[in-house]
Amino acid sequence: MLKGADDVLMEHEDSASQHGEMTNWDINDIKLPQDVRQIDGFQEWPDSYVKHIYSSEDKNAQRHHSSWAMRNTNNHNSRILKKSCLGVVVCGNDCSTLDGRKIYLRPAICDKARQKQQRKCCPNCSGPLRLLSCRGHGGYPVTNFWRHEGQFIFFQSKGAHDHPRPETKLEAEARRSIQKAQTAFSPSSPRLQRIQEIESLTGAVPTQEALPLLLSKPDAYPLPDNFRGHISKSSRELVLGSCSGWLPYSRTGEDMGSGEGGPCPMASGTQHHGQLSAPLKGSEGHEGEGGRHVGLNYCNDDVFFNLYPLR
DNA sequence: TCATGCGGGCGAC
DNA sequence: GTCGCCCGCATGA
């Protein structure tokens, strides 16, 4: 369907050196190169018409991981896994946080979960959420292809994302963990009562078992090259600064405290906890943005998380 | 509950 | 035939 455009772009791609690896192959080739001299470090944010060859030992590659929200697409070819980009969930009111950041949530991959997510409201302004579809591949979503061949995992991306980066899977997972912690620490929970009891007896504040916290670092969220011209600087600087509100990408609707549809008043009932950190499982990327930390600075209608002062 | 992968099926081109 | 997309199902975390 879009082959003509692809071919043109492939030429461009082939002429460009990508870390020096072989790129004169296509994911649909009957035979893929096996004399690969150099394998790539895992790319968390592949964009544009790129190809990568990963080691079959690479855990991220094995999982066909991407920080873009990619859903499985049936291409009726069991040898090649195809995924298409779901875009990003934004605030329908195009609101900004107090420090000028936009809301870029990660679309749920599961269709039902995504529908549910879109019924939720913006955690910043309580406005409607809107799914900003990816149309970076000739008007269709960017597609990623994965193929396991011998010792290597071949990756090919077609299209250039025309939308901001959503929060990463890791961040979304962290938010879920935090929500679980919130539930456990809700004011009426026996667990919290127990902690308060301990606190009153000992004067000590129990350190958290493992509330996940990821700390952001500047420039952790560069936008796709093709998007940089379209948004403001403040939107680009999606890093956590002051405790003016909450995290840059915000949380998804699933994390809105009591579930269905509740608006998100800003940080009511905020409790302050010490800064916590916990290593995240997995190895998000081997280079570049990999292994970064994410600031979580939550407003929350239930409990806390306006709480982690940044360094 | 949700992410992920698989595969049937449909319509457009 | 290829591609995009919908759907349901299964599995695992």
Give the topology.
Blueprint (H helix, E strand, L loop, with lengths): L2 H13 L35 E5 L3 H4 L7 E4 L6 E6 L2 E4 L19 H9 L9 E4 L10 E7 L2 E7 L10 H16 L5 H13 L30 H4 L75
Antiparallel strand pairs: 1-7, 2-3, 3-6, 4-5, 6-7
The protein binds a DNA duplex (13 and 13 nucleotides) through strand 2, strand 3 and helix 3.
Q: Please identify the top-level CATH class of the domain at 3-86 and 138-158.
A: Mainly Beta
Series of secondary-structure elements, N-terminal to C-terminal: HEHEEEHEEEHHH
- Distance from first to last alpha carbon: 51 Å
Please state the CA-atom Rg, rounded to the nearest Å. Answer: 21 Å
The major beta sheet can be summarized as: 5 strands, antiparallel
Name the average pLDDT.
62
Measured as a percent range, the helix fraction is 10-25%
Number of strands: 7
Biggest sheet strand line-up: 1-7-6-3-2
Beta fraction of the residues? 5-15%
- Shape, per Cα inertia axes: elongated
CATH topology (fold) name of the domain at 3-86 and 138-158: N-terminal domain of TfIIb
Helix/strand/pairing class, anyone?
alpha+beta
As residue ranges, the low-confidence spans are 1-20, 187-260, 262-311
Which second-level CATH architecture of the domain at 3-86 and 138-158 applies? Single Sheet
Classified in CATH, the superfamily of the domain at 3-86 and 138-158 is GCM domain, large subdomain
User: How many individual helices?
Assistant: 6
